[in-house]
Amino acid sequence: MDASVIAPRMDAIAQIRNEPVQARSTARLAALLDAAAFVVDEIGYERLTTAMVAERAGASIGTVYRYFPDRIAVLQSLAARNAERTSARRLTELEDLRHGDWVSAFTAAQEVYIDAFRTEPGFASLRYGDVLDLRPFVGASAIRSMSEQSVAVLVSRFGMTDSAASRTAYESAMVIGDAIAADAFRRDPNGDPAVLANGMTAITALLSEFFSAGS
């Protein structure tokens, strides 16, 4: 998949002071973001400091400031990375020919999102729409960007109606899916299955009118 297509709110990454151009610098930046993710997972993003990131990464505070001007930039960059990763995986599922109808394709894509709550440190706190929106930005939100890309795939593969109404409905479906997943994982560390099932029922009902019968 063209990486240029997967660009939800990458303006957040622009907060990084020095964009890495060597593998060594890229690895160091990844390590800092990984460290931030674990700290967020343990104590929440509200309490994260750059000093905590440095300590968890085994780096100096100067190394952190080499890449990030402040803690907000760390949080935004981590959230943008989470959004980028899940967007790529969700789009892959929508495009996967194993899924013969839109419901199975969408369900698989949503499972990617749900799995991120279980497996990605810090994802439950930093995902589409959260810390990404702490600062002004230029362009579409992460959810809107992902929604537009998803609709394009569903129009092409399953004949989804391509209209303002369908695009709005899909974006709403993503917002609902996010809220339902967050509630499910607040209730149960593994995601309350009844809550998740209710979410899928609501989402498929919302979107079904934009697909012809049997698609």
| Class per helix and strand makeup | mainly alpha
Estimate the global geometry from the Cα principal axes. elongated
Total helix count? 8
Q: Report the strand count.
A: 0
> Secondary-structure element sequence?
HHHHHHHH
User: How far is the first residue's CA from the last residue's CA?
Assistant: 24 Å
- Mean pLDDT, to the nearest integer, reads 85
Low-confidence stretches: 1-15
Query: Helicity range of the residues?
Result: 55-70%
User: Biggest sheet, in brief?
Assistant: none
Roughly how many Å is the radius of gyration?
A: 18 Å
Strand content: under 5%
Describe this structure in words.
It is built from 8 helices and no strands. It is mostly helical.
Brief write-up:
The chain has 215 residues and is an all-alpha fold.
How is the secondary structure organized here?
Layout lengths: L22 H21 L6 H8 L3 H7 L3 H25 L6 H18 L22 H17 L5 H24 L5 H15 L8
Helix pairs in contact: 1-2, 1-4, 2-3, 4-5, 4-6, 5-7, 6-7, 7-8
Keywords:
215 residues; mainly alpha; 63% helix; elongated; disordered N terminus
